[in-house]
Amino acid sequence: MASVALANGMNANVLRRWVNEHESSKSIALATPLATSFAAKPSGGKSAQPTPSPASVPVPLPAFIPVELGHDSAPAHDITIELRTGAVLLNITWPVSAAAQCAAWVAAVIR
Predict the structure, then answer these.
(1) Strand-strand pairing, 78-85 and 88-95
(2) Residue 9 neighbours by CB distance under 10 Å
(3) How far is 56 from 50, CA to CA, in rounded Å?
């Protein structure tokens, strides 16, 4: 789940909290009994039969709703890396379009 969150620029802890809240809200909705309302029947002396209230009938939600993310909707930012060693400060700016090469470079530098 963390890799999905990070791949979409999201904090993994926030995504986990949302999933937990969603799962707990589904279990609460399923555990809550249906409310009933009694409507008087116009047929004289017969007792009213309970009917589910439309507001209390749980509606099943789909397990997944696909959302198309537009790649052009968010402006591309540069990757900024700041390295410090002693009195030396090195700022590196790398284009996001070359993120894989940046990761390879960082891996080589930290070896």
Answers:
(1) antiparallel
(2) 8
(3) 13
DSSP structural state of residue 96: G
Q: Which residues of the chain have pLDDT under 50?
A: 36-39
Closest to 29 (Cα-Cα) out of 65, 67, 55, 1: 55
Tokens (6 digits) for 34: 């249906």
For the chain, the average pLDDT equals 74
Copy the structure tokens of residue 8. Answer: 């979409």
Rounded distance between C-alpha atoms, residue 111 and residue 109, angstroms:
6
Tell if the pTM clears 0.70, that is, is over it.
no
**Helix intervals (H) in the chain:** 2-7, 12-31, 99-109
Give residues with Cβ within 8 angstroms of 100, minimum separation 6.
Answer: none
